[in-house]
């Protein structure tokens, strides 16, 4: 066997690819978020619909609660000595604000977990067309 073939046989097991996914919390349901009505929905109702918040912030006699979820997709291409990797993390986040009587005053949400993609470093994961297609596929996001 030639020396080049021997080197190739030693390096061949170092070539390959890997994919990984990590989820933190359940993605937020846009329909449930839309069902929260400022001036009407109570803190108890929010907990019944969304569960326990990730974070609670006291604002004097008022409070703000944060709900979030995240999805990370990772791709690695092993080419012997040179490796290429990419990691795309997107999140859903909701802040709800309550007055001193625990009645919702306002809420703000962002939905992004569904936009997470597997991609290599030279690929653009923030293309408008890709995001629009994924937005259209997420139930409850687009009325």
* Average pLDDT over all residues: 91
Which ranges are low-confidence, i.e. pLDDT below 50, for 5 or more consecutive residues? Answer: none
| Strands, total number | 5
SS-derived structural category: alpha+beta
Please describe the biggest sheet, giving its number of strands, its sense, and whether it closes into a barrel.
5 strands, antiparallel
The ordered string of helix (H) and strand (E) elements is HEHHEEEEH
Task: Tell me the fraction of residues in β-strands, as a range.
Answer: 35-45%
Which bin fits the share of residues in helices? Answer: 10-25%
Individual helix count: 4
A few lines on this structure:
This protein has four helices and five strands; from the N terminus they run αβααββββα. The chain has about 140 residues and is an alpha+beta fold. Strands 1, 2, 3, 4 and 5 form a five-stranded antiparallel beta sheet that branches.
